[in-house]
């Protein structure tokens, strides 16, 4: 009986933990930096709206929104430097920051609006834009995943 209660408690803790993950993306000044975000598209009915914001994901919508889609096309865009170059209808809503600047460093929120209460997919990203290194090698963007 006690083991059943302990197992139930462990599962409850694991299943009700935070669903917001956080990624770190590092790039250099002058590069185009792609901040990843994807969601699962099973069929045309599962294509949904989403937004990117310049702050941690709030309880609804996006704080300081920079780009919105209705699932099919971009409907609002704060600056032409922010672009969605992926295939929206296949769930690739990764944000590309064109010609990155140090001022682009900070927290970004990718919110995919999934129908129903508290179903939205939330991913916070920490973007770090560093001054360019002097090098002849091609630049890279590094991404590491951390779950909070």
UniProtKB/TrEMBL annotation:
Residues 1-21 form the signal peptide. It is found in: Membrane. One of its GO terms (biological process) is cytoskeletal rearrangement involved in phagocytosis, engulfment. The keyword Disulfide bond applies. Belongs to the immunoglobulin superfamily. TIM family. Pfam families: V-set. The keyword Methyltransferase does not apply. It comes from Rhodinocichla rosea. One of its GO terms (cellular component) is membrane. GO terms for molecular function: phosphatidylserine binding. This is HAVR1 protein. Residues 30-135 form the Ig-like domain. It is a single-pass type I membrane protein. Keywords: Disulfide bond, Glycoprotein, Immunoglobulin domain, Membrane, Signal, Transmembrane, Transmembrane helix. It comes from the Eukaryota.
